[in-house]
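I am sending you the entry underneath: sequence plus fold tokens. Let me know what the token row says about the fold:
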Amino acid sequence: VEPLSLIAARAGGLSDSRLEEIQHANPDRNMLFIIQRIELLSKAHGVLQDLDIIVSINGKLMLHIDDLNVQYTHDALDLVILRNRSEIHLRVETTAYDGGVNKLVFWSGAIFQAPYMALRQQSSNAPSGVYCTDVASGSPADQYELMASYWITHINGVVTPDLASFEQAVRQCPDRTYARVRIVSFDLEPAVLTVKTCYHYWPTSTLTKDASTESGWRSSNEN
């Protein structure tokens, strides 16, 4: 969210009665807040929209950025927002912070993970819950042009909406065979690639966050 002057809010449809209420509540605080982007895969995505103006949260006018802190102690928030020059009442579920990267899948020399927070905040769309973050030079993924910043939507025709389904799908790909990988680029351009597996040099493995281990991560090989 970003601050929005009351003049701009008035141009966006803020009523006279709301303006008077805001000025009475805090004469020195002549602003509201506008939503610039909704985080992908959050529970607010699809409920709130970019450029919604927040009028109140749980019945209290939102006049300070600190008023958003209630999201950390509530499972849902009752919002009044200004959209298309009209006030709308919405109930929005909050999303718990996931603590960052919890699991990595290594396949054919590429690293895959669930979309991380910065990516969810920057992207306008999430074609999948599987994102390629790095590719080793000389690996099968590199040779067959599977690049970092690609979203993975299918493996051999099997839909992979999340990391668990992706891991299960790549486990079914035999050694030294061609796997069909349907991708969507960061610019949201779809394509289909073929990657020939070579598990002798580029085995499938995972790293999972595990506080009980000395390193904080648990490694496992799948083939």
About this structure: Residues 103-221 form a domain with the Pdz3 Domain fold (CATH 2.30.42.10).
